[in-house]
Amino acid sequence: MSDHEIDAARDDHLADDAPEIPGRRDALRLMGMAPVFAALGWNVTAAERAARFVETLPATVDTAYVTRFFTPREWRTVRLLADYLIPRDDHSGSATDAKAPEFVDYMLMDETTSDASRLAMRGGLAWLDTECRHRFGTSFVGATDAQRRAVLDDIAWPKKAAPAMSVGVAFFNRFRDSIASGFYSSAIGWKDLQYVGNVFNPNWNGCPESATRKLGVSYAEYDAALAAQRNS
Amino acid sequence: MQARTKSTTVYDVCIVGSGAGGGMSAYALTKAGAKVVMLEAGAEWFASKNSKMLMPAYASPRRGASSVRRPFGEFDACDGGWDIEGEPYTVASGSKFRWWRGRMLGGRTNHWGRISLRFGPDDFKGGTKDGMSDDWPITYDDVAPYYDRIDDLIGVFGSHEGMRNNPDGRFLPPPKPRCYELLVKKTADKLGVKCIPSRLSILTQAKPGRAACHYCGQCNRGCATKSNFSSPDVLIGPALATGNLTLITNAMAREVTVGKDGLATGVTYIDKHSGEDRHVSAKVVVLAASACESARIMLNSKSSAFPQGLGNSSGRVGKGLTDTTGTDVAGFIPAMVDHVPHNEDGVGGMHVYMPWWLDNAKLDFPRGYHIEVWGGISQPEYGALGGIQNYPGGGGYGKQLKADYRKYYGAQIGFSGRGEMLPNENSYCELDPTVVDRWGIPVLRFHWEFTDHEYNQIRHMQQTFRSLIAEMGGEVRQPMPTREQGYGIATGGQIIHELGCTQMGNDPNKSVLDANCRAHDCKNLFVADGGPFVTQADKNPTWTILALAWRTSDYITNQRKAGAL
Q1: Of B59, B185, B389, the CB nearest to A222
Q2: On the CB side of A5, how many CA atoms lie within 13 Å of its CA?
Q3: How many structural domains are present in chain A?
Q4: I want to staple B140 with a disulfide (CB 3.0 to 4.6 A). Which of A208, B57, B121, B217 is the partner?
Q5: Is A224 a domain residue?
């Protein structure tokens, strides 16, 4: 990222009146409609800066993602499996809604990823298909929902899994961590967890009473304990 | 070898390195009117211009993952690490050691945790106290006025506790603890572990040109509002503003040059852009390249007058190397599940900590440690919520899994112990006889050994942290490490507090520097980093590096005024 883009990103977070920017698609629309905003009295500079910032986000909304690591066949399996892990629910979207598979694919080709990790991912997916073929005569993608769940039920809880399932358990632990990492580090994931930080917050003055009460602690008790400690 | 480009300018002082020691020296010397040239092996970097503060994890497709150049995450300020391409080091057979280097303006002040603790009176007199190490040639009272000045100039928050060996400073008010830190305090009180507000160099009140903290919890990314301490924005910027500082970046120092009279004449360095050898002339040389790098430069400064390297007639350059001891334990805290959504980012570090609270005379290890605290809800980025199968839900998938992630997010508290390692004769560095870096400079070879002094201390840390977590009703996943596993001790160098290698002392046969951090062998050569330290302490070293550097700078200024330099 260039310094300008960083500045733009920072300013957007600092500005009280910055418009909410939900995604790249909206940013592109913003850029196309800048004159319209001007006519409506919008601050064009802010809109452009916001759009420039969002431009730097992974470009996955409007264009078909081209995988760096997964083969087309693996990619279908990965996307399907990812949504078994993190489906849509009352709180938020699914793993594929949050582009978690794209994140996993991207990071598998990262400079910090070992060949052993890449092999474990590729081999794990192959194991999953082999397991499905032995049981149902078809791949994971080709299996029915009930058949897929039968396999997942055998590998998703390590402590309950049969020793013969150890390869599948190891793969699934790894895959679940990767998808969770991608999902919860996304904007959708932040909202799901109700993470409300990463903001310019000069008036922060401790945690709310609802949070301290839950832990059975209080600032008054803390102040008293410190004072007692000093006097002892 | 390529032709050496020699500048005709003769500076008053050449400083090698721009971290805490180099930045402080540049600040004090330029303010006193000296013409100073500073050599930095990395590139220019100011947090106020270059910080990635407040970037959400999802602004990067890597979501903040560590990279080769930034082992603490791609948003982290510091460019450097334990492995730097083209700049190897070697480790002797049977030893384990990892050497961390910052390669940017400000060095590791861009990375550190801002834990700003004064050494106490006992820390300068370990020999007198228990006979297990040498005394420093100076006392707390010699350094205290400089601690005061640094507190005022740089800013540090804390509370007045009146503890003899954890001296109070000139503190800004501390921030309130986070809710889980209140739980830590309450638990520590029950177990008799002293827990107090932390002492970090983060501004809770504004200083001229520097805003008060805005509590985003991202000090490690560098602060765009200069609300915490890093050398470039707090020391080097003002030094540049005097007009007396010439800054040369991408300058890899090779050796200190010496004249026929045995005095330092300047520094030869490699311009990393062109690969050319260059030389700057100066009347005084201050090495502040980090404990080991300064030792390396001295060992590589060989001449007919100094065949063992400059300042090394005692054979002590590279000796007395220590790192802070460390081990960490984290626990799942059931009381913290289903968190109440709120912002507890706070400052970029803990709001409470535990200074050393016990009497070593009653324990099976001679020196103490302090305890750092972490946990709670923080920005979900790369690696967020890993290992869910280890929580009570046991793993799974689907809507139940999502509910578990929500439930267990932030339900963790961790403790890190940071203790004093005693110097020993088997822990040191020297020049490797055959290996050079990409610039042709001979590299360091490390020798390392922990003894039972450290292992017993680490065992005590592990037991204490596990007791604290158990008292909170928490669960630790990993079993207590065994003696064979070193009780979980961090590898030497991993805590990034290398000290020693150019130790100060009154006896020129047993030490490299005198009580003013001047080489016994060379009256215009000084060291202003962690090298002069005689011992560690159960405190982080930065505040003392700053204090010693300012003290040494004052000495240089006075000697210059007296015409002695």
Answers
A1: B185
A2: 12
A3: 1
A4: B121
A5: no
